[in-house]
Request: fold
Amino acid sequence: MRTHFHWTGLSDADRGASVAMGNFDGVHLGHQAVIGQARRAGLPLGIVTFEPHPRQFFAPQAPAFRLMNAEARTHRLEKLGVDQLYELPFDATLSGMEAETFVSEVLVAGLGVSHVTVGADFCFGKGRKGNADTLRRAGEAHGFGVTISDLVSFEGVEVSSTAIRTALAEGRPRDAAAMLGHWHRIEGEVLHGDKRGRDLGFPTANMAVAGLHLPKLGVYAVKVDVLTGPHQGSYNGAASLGVRPMFGENKPNLESFLFDFDGNLYGQHLSVALVDYLRPEMKFDGLDALVTQMHSDCDRARGILAHM
Reply:
């Protein structure tokens, strides 16, 4: 997959795709339906998305809401067979474009799209004045095809990033996964921490979660993909998502203990899938009680993951 961070200066080989367009936060079943309908025989499959998410641009101080960062979104789109990813900078220039200008300058002159597929609720352009019907009319005027994808439901509920956030906030990662069509994953670089886990016999890979919607804080059974470095591969494990109440006030982070693993992961990139919620964060009477609980958590996680 080739990734582009602007709509200008593209070679002829990188233009002319059939594209699905949207924010694709989570790349859930609804997004996958849009992407599936964008596939056209003989045409490269492209994605037009935006970074940062427009909500972040307009309300940078609002609570974090994203299900995945740009890195995780790229990895998920690559798994879906996308050929061209156009990750456009959502800044003052793009946010101020009228819908008609966006079509003519970005989609036509810049990307040279052959076909565009969007969800039925898609809006674009300054003030979100453009919608699916606007795009359909623009396609007729400029000579590219347009497909409007119906919204997708799961067990009577419309699949949406909002519904998935709710499931995660309530500690229901399997329900979230059912709407996503894949496990909810947190991806990023392994950072140096306080190394308390190592001292307790449970060395963990620590990752930041800033900017992401936080699932329910607590301990999870997880599947971990090591994406870079000499230890690339898939591992089972247990992870703590939270503020570590045993050790004072801390920023939330994700600490993953990989079963049957011995190696240095600092600086490498991990993808951690939340499989099952085991318990909430707790403050124990002492380190011995904490270690006993950690052994119990790991035993429970091993049992869950052994049947997958």
Notes: The CA atoms of residues 28 and 180 lie 4 Å apart.
